[in-house]
Amino acid sequence: MAKYITKRIIYLIITLFIIASVTFFLMKFLPGTPFSNEERLTIEQREILNAKYGLDQPIPVQYMNYMVNIVKGDLGVSFQFENQPVMDLLMNRMGPSLQLGVQAMIIGTIIGVALGVLAAMFQNTWIDYGSTFLAILGKSIPSFVLAALLQYYIGVKLELLPVASWNSFSSSILPTIALACFPIATAARFMRTELIEVFGSDYITLAKAKGNSRGEVAVKHAIRNALIPLITVLGPMAVGLMTGSMVVEKVFAVPGIGEQFVKSIMTNDFPIIMGTTLFFAFLLTVIILIIDILYGIIDPRIRLNGGDK
Amino acid sequence: MNREEEIKEIPKEQFEPAPIDHEGAERLEKPQLSFMKDAWLRVRKNKAAIVSLIILALVVLMAIIGPHLSGHDGYAQDVSKSNLPPRVPVLENMGIFDGTQKIGGEEVNKYEQMNIEEYYWFGTDSLGRDLFTRVWLGTRVSLYIAVLAAAIDMLVGVIYGLVSGFKGGRTDNVMQRILEVISGIPNLIVVILMLLILKPGIMSITIAMVITGWIGMARVVRGQVLKLKDQEYILASRTLGAKNNRLLFKHLLPNLSGVIIINTMFTIPSAIFFEAFLSFIGIGLQAPAASLGTLIEDGYKTFQFLPHLMIIPCILICVILIVCNLIGDGLRDAFDPKMRD
Lengths: 309, 341
Hints:
Chain A is mainly alpha-helical. Chain A contains twelve helices and no strands.
């Protein structure tokens, strides 16, 4: 186990190093400069700006500085927002994104598991078909389409919930629904398949033979075992939530990391783009690593020989 | 009535002795089915997949002929006819799609006010371009990108997986380590970074998606090759002197076709989604080119006043994604009943 974890962490560091390098060099090749209205700046002014942000040094030196700073946790300063360190900007905007992500994850998993359990217990009835249909819808409809439609019908037409504001819990309801759709679908599909398999196993037959009722067998024996592998879909779920957060935050004007990222792409704010990219990459790789390790601890049946499953 | 009585009631004449014919007993009553025929028979039973297949065929057909149907050009701008609501010939008499819209709480018909004789089935956008034509042009672009990306993913993934799995040993080891590192990079990030340096366009979006897209295919193919290459029929063929090429293309590839088709079928919707996603955050296709994503993005800007500009492309993209997923599910169940996720 220790060997496996060490190996995974080394891979993680290599991956992050590659991402950081690639991000840096890509940004250097980008067309356009971050200084808006650059035509109006005189050459001297531009030189002063370049010197201020260290853009006048040779690229290898810039690369070294960048790498050293990253390790220190310093992601540079934003061009766009007056000299604010990217790290501070990210931390300031972490709250709403985290809140939405966690809410969507919890709601999504609970509803998804419930749907999946119902579908498996009433296999091949209308409950099953309905739940499967919902799961297909959730998997298929892009989060930004759902977000835009929710905003139009529930926010603008019915005026039930606030749109494009961020001041109370009620303004987080619509974005959470838009984000939760994907986790619901993933969890529901997964639980259904997993439970159907468990229902066919010998120990369930034994539990039934002992005279337990259907509900008892499902709750006490089947669901518990089916829940363990659910951990494996948490990784793809996190990826989906992160993708979704960008567009959903854009639609509902949530002051989160995703919204800022989309804005920075528009304004060529390199440090924020690089910083957010690295931050997302770091978060995702660490989440996936934790999930893999957790799974190994909880379910000793899986072999941890090299990450190939 | 219990079972014994039931059996007694069957008259004896209905029984006849079975012929003792060993050759006859061995004969196969049904025609032998090839792999594909067998899969098709099973897909055919899946009603959702069949309906989806028909809808997808219609969408593809409309993507080909749709832009020519309404008689309006998808790129010609005519500001005098901008922001018109949908108006459809027969339906307008029934009170829907008659060209009326609410402006400031009042119901007005822009067609009557401005004496416009033409019918714009889906209305027009802010530059007076026909939405019907543009939606199908957009569908064409979205489908094109998706199919292209899926095809390249398939090609790269299958070759990588075949080589890695078949060669084995050190080659496999090195190739797998490379794959592990690449797969650690979230594809969203790669795609966004690539699009920031490449000039946005159909090719660059496809390339950006392919960079990480082939990994899933490579993994599945390698896994299958590892499983298949030690089976007896491969050994038999090798004993008979078959070269590697023959083993790969004659024996392994046909047995892999199931997983390859399923995987490709799931790549297509995810590529459509990604393209729309990128367009929506503003780094996808640039004007005047239209894809479903850019249409949704354009429509989103004015959706409070002109909801049809956003809702129509939204519905279309949802329909395409849903049918693609249903077909994918159907194919997966048909090719390998054990592989349901």
